[in-house]
Inverse folding.
């Protein structure tokens, strides 16, 4: 997922401001835009590669806790969708397809947005 998507969907407005300020304290504004255009494997990767947590006014514990909380939120939302689908689908083959689609759906849209999705070939 792109850094801009993690920025928009995983951080609330106040956290976005803190993130932006801390990153700009260590790099140029053009690098900020390059960073947001990069692809990251997880929210934790996005956050931990941005700046040294210890060198921020918020400190290391603040950013580490934020990583942990947001990754947990993501995993819980994937599980909620998967549990719902399990209750609705009895065909094992179709169930596996929809569970995979649910996980991809949450990865694509982040933790703050849910959109209707359906099984499409």
């Amino acid at each position: 997922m792109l850094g801009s998507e993690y920025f928009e969907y995983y951080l609330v407005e106040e956290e976005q401001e803190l993130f932006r300020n801390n990153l700009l304290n260590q790099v140029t504004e053009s690098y900020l835009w390059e960073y947001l255009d990069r692809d990251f494997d997880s929210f934790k990767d996005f956050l931990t590669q941005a700046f040294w947590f210890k060198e921020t006014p918020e400190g290391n514990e603040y950013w580490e806790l934020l990583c942990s909380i947001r990754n947990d939120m993501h995993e819980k939302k994937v599980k909620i969708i998967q549990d719902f689908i399990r209750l609705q689908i009895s065909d094992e083959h179709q169930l596996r397809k929809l569970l995979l689609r649910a996980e991809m759906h949450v990865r694509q849209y982040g933790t703050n947005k849910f959109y209707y999705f359906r099984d499409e070939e």
